[in-house]
Amino acid sequence: MTRHVIAAVDELPPGTRKFLDIDGRPIAIFNIKGEFFGLLNRCPHQGAALCEGPLIGLAQSSDPGEIEYTKLGEIIRCPWHGWEFDIRTGQSYCDPKRFRARAYPVNVEPGTAVVKGPYVAETIAVSVESDYVVVDL
Q1: How many CB atoms lie within 10 A of CB 106?
Q2: Which of 30, 62, 118, 123 is most buried, judging by how many CB atoms fall within 10 Å of its CB?
């Protein structure tokens, strides 16, 4: 598994999304109330650019006539046919057993861990003394 740096946390504030192409896969990264989630930008129903749809909530009912609107901004609605998916899990509320959007794990890591990378070249101390460049080996 190859790690990819997407953006600094400040570049993706809550309620926003960022579209990427990673190794030929269209992916969208969402910031939902400070948590980050990734979805394949393809609706499993008929292949529309799923993540370009509106962010909505989920209408739920525990009793007849009572509707509670939950998960505000956590559900993506496909722009083609209106199918709805939970951004956190990719689960469809239209037909959850057959359709699920591909979800990707997204982590926030300190910049020092990301910038450092897995490979570190050996460094050599260099200093300037009385207009001469000096290398210490």
Answers
A1: 15
A2: 30
